[in-house]
UniProtKB/TrEMBL annotation:
Domain spans labelled Aminoacyl-transfer RNA synthetases class-II family profile: 1-329
Superkingdom, taxonomy of origin: Bacteria
One MF term in the entry's GO annotations: glycosyltransferase activity
Protein name: Histidine--tRNA ligase
Length: 364
């Protein structure tokens, strides 16, 4: 097992490199208000974070990552453009023995710049690529923005599009919804039985038969939700060509230039993705100017969908010997959520020094 001093030395080297790239070093509290993270991710975050209660500050979480506090600090008082770097521990629950550590050191870089977002993506990726090149890591890239654009352009109800967008970071749940909306899978038996019961009688009578009201929902809210479920069940399936194109995107894996050619070929049938594909092309040109060949760069349209849920554009990772060494991506929407009326395009990434140290030991 790699000792803490070696890991810390790796972290210090990375931190110095980020500062040399113009980033301002920032600190973040170890205990963060749980309310902000719950608002962003919903109750799912509880399964991944350590939660505690403070008698004065209320519910708190041990820092699960740095991006949220860095964005909050920037949106409150940061100048533009800006670049920051950080170094410190994050804390994540693990669901199986022998998995990742519950507490580990992260070093990261965050770039806020509205002038040329795709150039910023390329700059950040090239910085990480250069730092990690001596270890021969395998890079991977994706673009969640293209998938989101495809979903937004579907010819179906806003409710169904919202459901797909909400679960775009949960691949298994997303696929189940898509299969059902495309008519490829029947609703679960329990759902069919529930819908049959909702249609069987007057809503007020059904509520009365259920017994006393428990919980915070009013009778009007329950009725509205039931009517929404019935309405959704009556929504026609996705048009077969649209569904086929979306399935195609979900499985697209190719070198980035070849992926661009493929997506250019389907924009006439799925025009909603064209602006996102144009941004993708601009990013590839910017990467090429940094000496990275897009014809050799792996791309998968679904890459990054199991990462933190704020990524909404370019995503990337680096892996070696099965170890997840680094990852990052674009999170423009997060700045709008935390900006109280302001927003700015932003991209960031982090490296796990412990993984780097382990790989260096294996190569020694």
């Amino acid at each position: 097992m790699t000792d803490r001093a070696t890991i810390r030395a790796e972290a210090e080297t990375l931190f110095a490199a980020f500062k040399s790239a113009g980033a301002v070093a920032v600190e973040a509290d170890t205990l963060l208000p749980a309310e902000t993270l719950l608002d962003l991710y919903g109750e799912d975050i509880r399964a991944r974070a350590y939660v505690t209660s403070d008698p004065l500050r209320g519910e708190m979480m041990l820092r699960p990552d740095f991006t949220v506090p860095v964005v909050q600090a920037h949106m409150q008082s940061g100048a533009e453009p800006a670049r920051y770097c950080y170094m410190g521990e994050v804390f994540r629950k693990q669901d199986r023995p022998g998995g990742r550590a519950n507490e580990y050191l992260q070093v990261g870089f965050e770039l806020f710049d509205r002038t040329a977002p795709e150039a910023a993506d390329a700059e950040l990726f090239a910085l990480f690529h250069g730092l990690l090149a001596p270890l021969g890591l395998r890079p991977a890239t994706g673009d969640i923005g293209i998938l989101m654009a495809a979903v937004k352009g579907l010819s179906t109800s806003q409710r169904r599009k919202a459901a797909l967008l909400r679960h775009i970071w949960r691949p298994a749940r997303f696929r189940k919804l898509l299969d059902r909306f495309a008519g490829r899978a029947a609703p679960p038996q329990a759902r069919q039985e529930m819908l049959a019961r909702l249609r069987s009688g007057d809503m007020a009578a059904l509520i009365a038969d259920a017994g006393p009201m428990i919980g915070l929902r009013s009778e009007a809210e329950i009725t509205a939700r039931a009517n929404a479920l019935i309405e959704d069940d009556q929504t026609p399936p996705l048009a077969a060509p649209e569904a086929a194109l979306l399935y195609d995107l979900l499985t697209l894996q190719a070198p980035a230039r070849a992926a661009l050619s493929h997506m250019r070929g389907i924009t006439s049938m799925l025009p909603a993705i064209e602006p996102a594909v144009d941004r993708f092309a601009t990013r590839l040109d910017a990467l090429e100017r940094h000496g990275i060949n897009p014809s050799d760069l792996p791309f998968a349209a679904s890459h990054g969908r199991s990462s933190m849920e704020y990524y909404d554009g370019f995503v990337f990772s680096f892996e070696g010997n099965g170890l997840p060494v680094a990852s990052g991506g674009r999170y423009d929407a997060l700045t709008a959520v935390l900006g109280q009326g302001r927003s700015i395009p932003a991209v960031g990434g982090m490296i796990r020094p412990a993984m780097l140290a382990t790989l260096r030991e294996a190569l020694a």
